[in-house]
Amino acid sequence: MVGGIPAQNAITAHLPIGIFKLFLVCVSIGLIVATNVMFAGAVRHIYGMARDVQLPFSRTWSKTLKDGEPWAAVLLLGALSIVPVFVFTTKTSSIVGGATAAMYVAYFLIMLVTLIYRFRGWPKVKGRFSLGRWGILVNIVAVLGTGLTALDLLWPRAATNPTYNQIAGTAGGFFLKGIPMAWLIVGFPLLVGVVYYALRAKRIHDHPLAIDQYLPEP
Fold first, then answer.
1. Measured by CB atoms within 10 angstroms of the end CB, which terminus of the chain is less buried, N or C?
2. Is the residue at 14 inside a domain?
3. pTM of the model
4. Domain residue limits at 136
5. Are 94 and 88 in contact (CB under 8 A)?
6. Distance of CA 189 to CAs 117, 128, 182, 185, Å?
7. What is the pLDDT along the chain (218 residues), one digit of tens a residue?
C-alpha cells in the first residue's frame, strides 16, 4: 500500500509480468463494459423522462431515429460527459470520489422509492421472478446499505471527498474551492432539479406517464 500501486506490486512480486498484463486487460475490459452500461442507462433515463415531458426541451431529447435509437439523448449525455474534462483539466481523477457518491445517492433514492411503493402494495402484477415476502426485507437492507455507503462517500475528508484546494494544494480563493467535491457533484444537479420541479410541478403531474399504460386496470 505504501508503494502506491498495491495491485501491481502484489502480482509482480509472486507471478510473471505476463500475469499482470493479463490482469490489466481484464480491468480494461471491465471499465469499458461498465462505462457502456452506465452510459446506456443514463441515456435511457434521459429519453424516458423526456418522453414523459419531465425535462426542459423534452421534445428535443425524446427524438429518435427510425429504428428507435434516442440519438438526441446520446448527444446530450456525450456533451455533458465532456464538461468535467474542461473544468478540471489535468485533475479529472479528483471527481472520481464525487461521481461514485452521486451514483450511490441515485441507488439509495431508487431503493427508497421502491420500498415506499412496496409498502403501498407494489408490484401489482406478479412477475416471473419474485422475492415474495422477502422483498421488503431485502429492500430495507438495500436502503441501509446504499444510504450508509453514500453517507460515507459524502463525508468531508481529504482521502475520499477532498475540496479543490486540497487536491491542488492551494488555499482560499473562490468559495467553491473550499467545498468537498462530492457535495458539488451531487448538490448542483440536485439544486437545479429542485428549482425546475418547483417551477413546473403542476405541469409535470398533469402529464400522463408512459408507465401508467402498463398498470393493471382497477
1. C
2. no
3. 0.70
4. 94-189
5. yes
6. 25, 36, 12, 7
7. 566 677 788 888 888 999 999 999 999 999 999 989 989 999 999 999 899 888 889 999 999 999 999 999 999 999 988 887 776 665 666 677 788 898 899 899 999 999 998 998 888 777 788 888 899 999 999 999 999 999 999 999 888 888 888 887 788 888 888 999 889 889 988 898 889 888 887 776 776 655 554 455 44
Which of 38, 35, 75, 39 is CA-nearest to residue 57? 75
**144 located within any domain:** yes
CA dihedral 177, 178, 183, 185 (to 10 degrees): 10
Buried/exposed 19-46: b ≥16 CB within 10 Å, e otherwise? ebeeeeeeeeeeeeeeeeeeeeebbeeb
Distance CA 31, CA 37 (A): 10
Question: How many whole angstroms separate alpha carbon 83 and alpha carbon 189?
Answer: 14
Flag whether 100 is in a domain.
yes
Q: Are the C-beta atoms of 97 and 153 separated by less than 8 Å? A: yes
Distance of CA 51 to the CA centre of its chain: 20
Q: Is residue 167 part of a domain?
A: yes
Please state the domain count of the chain: 1
The C-alpha atoms of residue 134 and residue 140 are separated, in whole angstroms, by 10
Alpha-carbon span 167 to 159, nearest angstrom: 10
Residues contacting 60, CB < 8 A, separation 6+: 50, 72
